[in-house]
Every structure is written in C-alpha cells, then in structure tokens.
Amino acid sequence: MKKTLLSAFLMLTSFLFAQQNCGSAVEITANGTITAPAITGTYVTSCDQTNPDAAGPYYGVWYKYTATSNGTVALTSNLPANVAPNSDDTRLSVWQGASCSALTCVGGADDVSGTVYLSTFNFNAIAGTTYYFQWDSRFSALGFNFTFTFTPVSCFPVTTLNATSGITTTSITLNWAAATLNPANYDVQYGPLGFTFGTGTSVSTSTNSITLNGFSASTSYDYYVRSNCGTSQSTWTAVSSFSTAKVCPQTFGFENNSELVGWSTFGNGSYGLSAIAPTLAQAGSYYWIFNTNTTAVSNNWLFTPAFSLQANEAVTITFWVRCATARSLRLTVGNSTLPASQTTQLWTNAALNNPTFTQFTTSFTPSIAGIYYFGWNDISTAQTVATMRLDSINFSSVLSTNEFSESNFSIYPNPTSSILNISNPNNVEIKSISVVDINGRIVKNQSDSLSQINVSDLNAGVYFVTIEAAEGKTTKKFIKQ
Q: How is 152-194 classified by DSSP, letter by letter?
C-alpha cells in the first residue's frame, strides 16, 4: 500500500465543498461518472478493515443514494482517468441509515490488487434505504473520478458460500449465507465434477443449508446455488466443489482439479500451488510450495480433505519434501481444519535441509472410527528467502476383516419407504443381501442386483440388512416407513 502524505496545501486550506460532510452529502440520482474534488471534509472511521486507520488526521468527501427499488450498486474508481499523476490511491466506505447520526457499516474497499490502488465495491441495495459513501484521504487526498451503477434486481442472489459440514463417505451438508431479504426458497444443482450446468440434480430448500445423500466415497462434485423468490429467481452462484470423505488408499500429486477439491489452508505467510518450474516437482508438473514468513515464525497450514477412518485402522502416510535452506515442518491430525483441533503430532523435523526431494514416512492408528483431517504445518523461523516444496502424498491402510467390511458399506436413505441403496465405494465383491425383521425372520434375500433392495412391500418397522462379501459379513439396521 502506497502511503502518500497529504499535501501542504490541504493541511493549510479550510475551504469545504458541499459534499465534504455527511449532512450535506451530494445526492446521486442516476448512473454515470462522478468527479470528486480534493478530499478536505469530515472523516468518519473507515468501514474497510484491510488497512486499519493509522495516525491521522484524515478527511472525507461524501455522497449518498436512496434506492427506489431493490437492486445492486457498483462503485469503482478503477478508471484510466485516475492513474497518476491524478489520484492513484483511493479508499471507500459505505454506510446505511436513516440519518448521519445512525449509520451502520455496509462495507468498504481499498486496493483492487497489490499493484492497483484504486477501489471497487459492490453491494445489495434495498428499496427505500439511504446509503452514504465516504471516500477518504487515508492514502491520497487528490480529486478523482468514480462511476456509480445501480441495477434493479427482483430476487437477490446468494453471495457467500460457507464451509461444508457433516461430511461422510456418502453425504454432505452445503451451507451458504442467507441472501438479502431472505427468499422463500433456495435452489441447488449438483453433479459430478465438471458436469454441464443444466444436466445435474436439482433440489430445493427453505433454509440456507441442505444435506445431500447418495454419493460415492472419495469423489469430487460441483454445485451451484440460487435464491428462489417464487415469482422470480436470482442468478446462480459461480461453480463450487466439494469432496466426500476419502477412504484409503489415496494419492495426491496436486496435478488436477479433482485431487485439489477439499484441501484447505491457513497461515501467516505465502503458500500455494506452483508449476513455475515443473522440473522441481517430485513427479508430474505441480507441487505445493511453502514460502517462509519474512518477519515472524511461520504458521502456514495445508489441510487434507476429510478422511473416513475406522477404529484401529493402521494408516501409513508417505510424502516428499525439498528445501534448499533449513526449514521446520510437522504433520498433525485432528477432527477439523482448525489449527487448534490438530491435537496429535505424527511427525516433525525442525532441521529439514534437503536440496533434492526426500521421502518421509509416518503412521496413524485411530482408536475410534470417525472423520479425520491431516495437516502439514510450516513452522520455520523468519527468513528473507526460503522455499519448501511438498509433493507426492500417499495414504494407505490395513484393516481387520470385520473393520474392512464395516468401512466399505453404508445404506441409504434411512429411514426409507421403498428403495434401500447399498453404497459400496471400494467395489467389494458382494455375494448376497438379506433382510431380517426384528423377530429374526428372513423376509428378503437376493444374490443379484446387489446395489439396492426394494422394501416397499414390507410393513413399517425396524429391520436389519446383512451384506455378505468375500471378506465377511456386516449387518446394518434400517427403518421402513
């Protein structure tokens, strides 16, 4: 962020234009380009939190707009006319309120990018509500141009997709922030990763989350969400992806989109996927790169997708690391991707210094079945230039016979009124399926069509389905509605 001092002229002058305070903010009545004067007016603390206020004084220039219908507002100073020596550094705050004495932050914006210091901010505007815009002198007090664009919208779209939850090998819960004005319903369309929009499965919900079932384990999917206001619908969100829980074995080389779905990060430094020098990968063209924080001890995390592991499942993890300078890395496991939940350290090396890729191996045996996440944590000391590469990660495991059978089958939906599906993500050879009632009587038995069983003719009640495979049998309870 460029930090331009206020000019001596602005510090000396006391002349205020009409729009130099909230009470006399200039009313915007139409779309178009607006020319703001030098910023010398009253300043209110910024709504933008990316660059908190330092020592002032700061000044502001004010505008306002009252929406005549529901719609979206787009404000931007990212215009050719604002390139230096004109104003090349702006910051914007947007409030809403009935008066200047009762303002609530809507949001704010500073830099478009690390090299473009102009500002762009979009928000939803509700009919009859007045919005106030303050451009401030935090980094430059020069006059500039900005554009204002209002677009009527009959149904506000979903703007924020939240983290998924409730991940299993066959189900997941999708979550999103409620759209403005809380539409009556939301529509969701989903399908295999890369599916053509319009060919997926469509479902609706009256809340801003939905649980979906019937998936395959270790598989990636795409989905879209939109608001449904009854007589009209919003635009769809951009495509997003999720992965069902992984089961061993799994290999990750960061080479394609399917491999990357479900991975997540956290940290105080630079990290990410790289193919700048493909010859530096352990295999393929891509690898994960950790760049050490230059001012503090690093705390950069790379988390795997969810893994579904069975009790006493002996998991072996191998991975390759390369670094040209001394680095510190550890591998942990926990029940979420929050660093605080990564309570079990599986491996650590505080003195990595291997200029060629070196393979490391560790293991983990959970005491109880559940969902687990593994995390690589770069905790190197601050260095000006230091890079560590991670590649070719492999998970394998060994299960006992009973545990193997339990981990490879699930049934859904449960309860059911007609069809009971058998999920077999690892394609284990099934010999037969039988259904037993609560009195121990076999009421159904089949040795073909082993992916589902029709129970529509059974009376309502509790039943048990027994799945027999070459490795043994497993029995699961279900409810017939």
A: E-SSPPP--EEEEES--SS-EEEEEPPPTT--SEEEEEEEETT
